[in-house]
């Protein structure tokens, strides 16, 4: 060590580097960053130049490197390997940013839906054109028990598959599909599928396309058990309008019982494909 180089105590050096003394003790213990001078009384002293080494350690830790990986870098001092490690960290950060952006979109969709639900005009049928939508839809199997069992099993399967396509998931909502055949019989008590919306088509046995078409829509507000009556009212509206049902009914919660203690405040949108 050159003469007249100032020495810093552990506390001074820790303050300079923005770390704790305990962190420096640990770095010393594992041989990652040792003090330049160690006096007979056990006191440790560092040089200001060592702060650059500490800065690199802090930087690499923030990039997700373990202390053993950082120590290996200082031992080998291989520039190519160092750059390769940084590129790998950069790729992981890109993936994490994509996941965070997706979560942000999910949260924004939920916020907008919840905020707008109370002000929507309810129980008034209308007709609108809707672009095609990509869904994951799992059939409901009522043969193993009642409605609760069918929904529990189908919802679990849906959630398991959504994990694979989470980057394309548009909302946390699980909707219901009633087939055209059941609609023709005005049977909306039991759904045929549970579904969730995606931003793009996927390769899955549960991939489902909601066609671009005109849809008769209505906002239902009230208990779930009153939903079939709202569905019947919408079917009657379609007939009175001189239109024909050409596809399925899609029901999605806008303001669910998870958000309110009052069943009468639950809000759902019903959309039935028509010609």
What is this structure, in a nutshell?
This protein has 275 residues and is an alpha+beta fold. Helices cover 41% and strands 22% of the residues.
Tell me, briefly, the overall form.
Answer: elongated
Report the biggest beta sheet as strand number plus sense, adding barrel if it closes. Answer: 8 strands, antiparallel
Radius of gyration: 30 Å
User: What is the typical, i.e. mean, pLDDT?
Assistant: 87
Query: Order of strands across the widest beta sheet?
Result: 4-9-11-10-6-7-5-8
Question: Strand-and-helix sequence, N→C?
Answer: EHHEEHHHEEHEHEEEHEE
> Helical region count?
8
The number of strands is 11
Helical residue percent band: 40-55%
Amino-to-carboxy terminus distance: 87 Å
Structural class call reads alpha+beta
State the low-pLDDT regions, or none. none
Task: Give structural notes.
- By secondary structure, this protein is α+β, with helices and mostly antiparallel strands.
- It contains eight helices and eleven strands.
- It is elongated.
- The model has no long low-confidence stretch (mean pLDDT 87).
């Amino acid at each position: 060590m050159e003469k007249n180089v100032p020495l810093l105590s552990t506390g001074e050096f820790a303050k300079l580097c923005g770390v704790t003394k305990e962190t420096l003790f640990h770095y010393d213990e594992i041989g990652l960053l040792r003090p330049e001078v160690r006096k007979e009384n056990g006191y440790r002293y560092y040089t200001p130049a060592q702060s650059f080494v500490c800065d690199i350690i802090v930087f690499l830790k923030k990039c997700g490197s373990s202390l053993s990986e950082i120590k290996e870098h200082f031992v080998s001092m291989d520039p190519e390997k160092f750059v390769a490690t940084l590129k790998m960290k950069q790729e992981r950060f890109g993936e994490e940013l994509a996941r965070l952006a997706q979560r942000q979109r999910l949260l924004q969709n939920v916020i907008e839906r919840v905020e707008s639900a109370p002000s929507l005009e309810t129980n008034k049928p209308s007709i609108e054109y809707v672009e095609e939508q990509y869904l994951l839809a799992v059939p409901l199997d009522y043969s193993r028990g009642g409605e609760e069992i069918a929904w529990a099993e189908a919802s679990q399967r849906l959630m398991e598959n959504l994990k694979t396509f989470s980057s394309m998931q548009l909302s946390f909502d699980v909707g219901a599909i009633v087939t055209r055949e059941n609609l023709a019989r005005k049977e909306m008590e039991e759904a045929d599928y549970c579904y969730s919306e995606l931003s793009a088509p996927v390769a899955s046995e549960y991939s489902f396309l909601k066609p671009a078409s005109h849809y008769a829509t209505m906002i239902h507000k009230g208990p779930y058990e009153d939903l079939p009556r709202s569905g019947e009212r919408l079917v009657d509206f379609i007939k009175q309008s001189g239109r024909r049902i050409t596809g399925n009914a899609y029901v999605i919660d806008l303001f669910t019982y998870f958000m309110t203690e009052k069943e009468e405040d639950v809000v759902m949108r019903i959309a039935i494909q028509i010609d």
